[in-house]
TrEMBL record:
GO terms for cellular component: cytosol. CDD domains: DNA_pol_III_epsilon_Ecoli_like. NCBIfam families: dnaq, dnaQ_proteo, PRK05711.1. GO terms for molecular function: 3'-5' exonuclease activity; DNA binding; DNA-directed DNA polymerase activity; metal ion binding. Coiled coil: none annotated. Substrate binds at D7, E9, H57, D158. It comes from Cellvibrio japonicus (strain Ueda107) (Pseudomonas fluorescens subsp. cellulosa). This is DNA polymerase III subunit epsilon. The lineage of its organism: Bacteria, Pseudomonadati, Pseudomonadota, Gammaproteobacteria, Cellvibrionales. A divalent metal cation binds at D7, E9, D158. Residues 2-175 form the Exonuclease domain. DNA polymerase III contains a core (composed of alpha, epsilon and theta chains) that associates with a tau subunit. This core dimerizes to form the POLIII' complex. PolIII' associates with the gamma complex (composed of gamma, delta, delta', psi and chi chains) and with the beta chain to form the complete DNA polymerase III complex.
Length: 237
């Protein structure tokens, strides 16, 4: 199964107020493994970045002046995403901006959800951890994901971090990169900041229980069953 972990940065909070996407970052998962392929692109929004947004991501107007406009990158972006399932934190925000850009460029396009399924990791986290902070930094701390390089928001860096969080949150799997640390970004960006386990590391040693240990285990469960009135959880089907 192909999944794309995606994040965007924008000029402001509301596309309905004319704000635009200025950065897209995507990383690819195939059958829950990072492939090393990613897409990264800065975009000239043809308007100024709000001061509040600049304080969040640190991307200035000057940095974007020589970057391509959305119309120049849309085909590469859609080709990379394809019909993969999208994994996004607070998906309504990113999907809203992406749909807005696509429909300004191609009226009647509709929603990217018409071609891609979407998993919202914020909703997933709220279901798993109700009443707790579930922003990306809080999830990194909860699942032991290294976000020490995240002084400011960045679309590619946040997509990389979110991939690790998603794998940990949905199965305890973390940092299985097949592409190494220096895979070149499609779209011209460079991957940096995330420390991953080497794909060349030795296989984990599997130690099986001996016959004596299995017998001792069965005896212990039987003892628990006797003392609990046959309510041993580990013996229930």
């Amino acid at each position: 199964m192909r999944q794309i972990v995606l994040d965007t940065e924008t000029t402001g909070l509301e596309y309905s107020q004319g704000h635009r996407i200025i950065e897209i970052g995507c990383v690819e998962l195939m059958n829950r493994r990072l492939t090393g392929r990613h897409y990264h692109q800065y975009i000239n929004p043809e308007r100024e970045v709000d001061a509040g947004a600049f304080a969040v991501h640190g991307i200035s107007n000057a940095m974007l002046n020589d970057k391509p406009v959305f119309a120049r990158i849309v085909d590469d972006f859609l080709n990379f995403v394809g019909d993969a399932e999208l994994i996004i934190h607070n998906a309504a925000f990113d999907i809203g901006f992406i749909d807005h850009e696509l429909n300004m460029l191609r009226p009647g396009f509709g929603s990217i959800k018409g071609r891609c399924g979407v998993i919202d990791t914020l909703l997933l986290a709220r279901n798993k951890h109700p009443g707790q902070k579930n922003n990306l930094d809080a999830l990194c701390k909860r699942y032991g994901v290294d976000n020490s390089q995240r002084d400011l928001h960045g679309a590619l860096l946040d997509a990389e971090i979110l991939a690790d969080v998603y794998l940990a949150m949905t199965g305890g799997q973390t940092s299985l990169s097949l592409g190494g640390n220096q895979a070149k970004a499609e779209g011209g960006g460079n991957q940096e900041g995330i420390r991953r386990l080497s794909s060349q590391r030795p296989a984990l040693r599997v130690i099986s229980a001996s016959a004596e240990e299995l017998q001792a285990h069965e005896e212990k469960l039987a003892a628990i069953a006797r003392s609990s009135g046959d309510n041993c959880l580990w013996l229930k089907p």
